[in-house]
Amino acid sequence: MGPAHEARDDGGGGGGMIAELAKSLSDLLTAERARFTVEHPRSVAMAKAAGAHWRGGAPMHWMNDWASPSPIFAAQGVGAQITDVDGKLYDDFCLGDTPSMFGHGDPSVAAAVSDQIKRGAGFMLPTASAAIVGKLLSERFGLPLWQAATTASDANRAAIRWARAVTGRPVILVFDGCYHGMVDDAFVVLKDGAPVMKPGLLGQVHDLTATTRVVAFNDLAALEAALAPGDVAAVLAEPVMTNCGMILPEPGFLEALRRLTREAGTLLVIDETHTISTGPGGYTRAHGLEPDVFVLGKAVAGGVPAAVWGVTAELSARMDAAQQRIGPGQSGIGTTLSGNALAMAAMRAMLSEVMTEAAYGKMLAGAERLVAGLNAVIAARRLPWSVVHVGARVELVFADPPPKNAAQMRKVLDHEAVEALHLWLINRGVLIAPFHNMMLVSPVTEDAAIDRLVAAVDGFAAAMGE
C-alpha cells in the first residue's frame, strides 16, 4: 500500500505501479463486497424493503455513506459494541459519530430518560433538572450563562444570529474544511485559493460567499487579512479540524486567533461538538481557550438529541441590549423541542455521572494504546501514513507528515483506499466512522477490542502490500 500510494501522488511516471494499485484495490473491494452480501442477508433484505418507503433504503442519506454495499441494520448496542440484525458483533469505534462516545445504553442515562418519559417529555417549561444542568455546565466549561438547542447546528445558527445582532456586522469567518453541522454560513470552502460555495450544496439560492469569509486553518496571515476590514461579526471555529481528516492547530495558532479576534472586535465561537473528546472540559478547558461562545452537541445528552451554547457575562449583556433595541417579536432562534425535559434529564445524568474525570482517564489511556498500536503497524510495514489524535479521537491519515490544512488534506485523501479499509474492517467486526478514518475510544472500550482494530488495520496493509 505504501509505495503504491506514493506513486499515485507523484504526478508522473510509475504508471505500472498505479495500475497495480488500482487492480489490487478493485479486486479487494469486489471480494469484500461479495463477502458482506453473503454474510449479511437480513441487512440486505431490510435495505431492499426499506427502499420502498425511505429514499436510499434508510431514514437519513448518510446511513448509506458506509463502505458496505448496503446499510448495516443495527439490532442493539451495549457498551462499545453493536450487534446487527444478522447477529454479527462489532467493536464500535464510530459510536454514532460522537453521540455515543461514552458507550451505548449507559445505565445512568437510561434510568434518567426512562424516569422522565413517564412524567412527560416536554412542557415548554423549565424543570428542576434544568437548574442543575445550567450549574454543571458553568462549572465544567467556565462560561456563566447558557441556552439549549436541539442540535449543535441549531446552537451554531443561534450564535451566528446573535453575533450579527450584537456587532451590527454581516460577515462570518470560517476555516476551509470546517465542521459545524447543517449551518448554511459554514458551507464555503477554498478552491484554488478562492472562496466558493461547497460543491454538492443543494438548493442554495443566495451566494454564501457574500457574507461568509473562509481562510485556511493555521494560516495566521490570511486570518489577519480577513479580519482587517472590520466587518466580521464572529469567527466560528473548531479548535481542531475534524471534518476533512483531523488537522491539529500549529503551536500558538489558537492563542493568536483569540488575540486577533479581540483586536478586530470580532466574537470567537468555539464549536466543541467533536473535540469534547479532549477531556472533561473539552479542548477549551484543557488548553485555556477563552471563547465568547462555547457550543456543544452530540455527546452532551448521551445520544438524546440536544445541544447547549454558553456565553460570557459581557456578551450576555450585549445580547440584552441588542434585544431591547430590536424590541419584541420572533427572534428566529430556537425550536419547540429545544431544552425539553427529556433532554435535560439526559444531560443531567451525563454531566454528573457519565462524563467524569475517571471516564476520561480510561478513554485517554485507550486512545494512547490505539495510537501506539497503529504507529507500530506503520513503522513495521514502513508505510507513508501517520496518526493524529486529540484526546479519545484518533485519525489514521494516508500521508506522512499529516497535512496542516484542508487543501493539503484533499491532495492526499484517497477515497478508494479509505473505502477499501472501511469495508475490510466491517467484514472483520470493526466499525469506524464512515467519514475518512476517524476512530473514537469510549471508557468501556476494552483493550482487546483496540488490539483487534490494530490487527485488522495491519491485515489490510498486508493485503494491499501483496
TrEMBL record:
<keyword id="KW-0663">Pyridoxal phosphate</keyword>
<dbReference type="InterPro" id="IPR015422">
    <property type="entry name" value="PyrdxlP-dep_Trfase_small"/>
</dbReference>
<dbReference type="InterPro" id="IPR015424">
    <property type="entry name" value="PyrdxlP-dep_Trfase"/>
</dbReference>
<dbReference type="GO" id="GO:0030170">
    <property type="term" value="F:pyridoxal phosphate binding"/>
</dbReference>
<dbReference type="GO" id="GO:0008483">
    <property type="term" value="F:transaminase activity"/>
</dbReference>
<dbReference type="Pfam" id="PF00202">
    <property type="entry name" value="Aminotran_3"/>
</dbReference>
<dbReference type="InterPro" id="IPR005814">
    <property type="entry name" value="Aminotrans_3"/>
</dbReference>
<dbReference type="GO" id="GO:0042286">
    <property type="term" value="F:glutamate-1-semialdehyde 2,1-aminomutase activity"/>
</dbReference>
<protein>
    <submittedName>
        <fullName>Glutamate-1-semialdehyde 2,1-aminomutase</fullName>
        <ecNumber>5.4.3.8</ecNumber>
    </submittedName>
</protein>
<dbReference type="InterPro" id="IPR015421">
    <property type="entry name" value="PyrdxlP-dep_Trfase_major"/>
</dbReference>
<comment type="similarity">
    <text>Belongs to the class-III pyridoxal-phosphate-dependent aminotransferase family.</text>
</comment>
<keyword id="KW-0413">Isomerase</keyword>
